[in-house]
TrEMBL record:
Belongs to the short-chain dehydrogenases/reductases (SDR) family. Pfam families: adh_short. Keywords: Oxidoreductase. GO terms for molecular function: oxidoreductase activity. One of its GO terms (cellular component) is membrane. It comes from Polynucleobacter aenigmaticus. It comes from the Bacteria. This is Short-chain dehydrogenase.
């Protein structure tokens, strides 16, 4: 059994969570240009309102929310149901990144990272899943990171949050494929955004947010579960996952200059 893709986005009802900047903004912009009906969510209402102007009057919904609040997500989803009667694609892009190593480990930052990056998507999925299961249709796409593949420097909280996303998506895929619901696990490498601007090291295979958005939408259209890019970097990190730990740690220390 193979999961379904979205052949095109014209008139599809799409909820982009994390739409006010970076990859989320690039995805929302592309989807609006392709004729999608896009619900825009993040904490920054002003930026969402500006983005909404790219679409037609009936093409957008502006639904500010905080992904750490279950009530915000449920209320926003109800607004989508009231306005459009359903949802074809949940695209969760929101997340936070603070570089952390063991010598500056801050549990408060770690807790906030897990709450936003792992529990946030879980809250969104919990909101939309009952209706999708009832209709045996829909797409759930969650942006994780190649940092979730294995332990990397400066990702002491971010990495575990994204590793959790990989496991969550894998289990969702297993459970939802027989139900007619497609799951898309998205693992970008380094993308030029406000978050990665915090990095003080050279980022290999760095791409733009627009390039990332094109990879994501192309993967969803094709019905892919594992959407990772850019391949020259994500493929290398996938290879590292299968190596014995002594060799893995030697390569990371030698070649991943973080």
């Amino acid at each position: 059994m193979k999961q379904q893709g979205l052949e095109n986005f014209l008139n599809k009802r799409i909820w982009v969570i994390g739409a006010s900047s970076g990859i989320g903004e690039a995805c929302a912009t592309a989807l609006l240009k392709l004729g999608g009906k896009v619900a825009l969510s993040s904490r920054r209402a002003e930026r969402l309102n500006t983005l909404a102007q790219l679409g037609g009057k009936e093409q957008t919904l502006v639904l500010p929310l905080d992904v750490t609040r279950q009530g915000d997500l449920e209320s926003a989803y109800q607004s989508i149901l009231d306005s459009w009667g359903g949802l074809d694609l949940l695209l969760f892009v929101s997340g936070m990144y603070v570089p952390l190593r063991a010598d500056n480990f801050d549990f408060d930052i770690a807790q906030k990272t897990i709450d936003a990056n792992l529990l946030g998507p879980m809250r969104a999925v919990a909101a939309v899943l009952p209706e999708m299961l009832k209709n045996h249709a829909g797409h759930i796409a969650i942006v994780g990171s190649v940092a979730g593949y294995s332990g990397l420097p400066k990702a002491l909280a971010y990495g575990p949050s994204k590793a959790g996303i990989i496991n969550f998506c894998e289990t969702l895929y297993y459970d939802l494929l027989p139900q007619g619901i497609s799951v898309h696990m998205i693992s970008p490498g380094f993308v030029a955004t406000e978050a990665t601007a915090k990095n003080d090291f050279e980022m290999p295979a760095l791409i733009t947010a627009d390039e990332a958005a094109q990879e994501i939408l192309k993967g969803i259209q094709a019905g892919k579960f594992d959407i990772h890019f850019p391949k020259r970097f994500s493929g290398f990190l996938k290879f590292l996952r299968i190596l014995p730990y002594p060799l893995y740690f030697w390569i990371v220390r030698r070649f991943v200059q973080l």
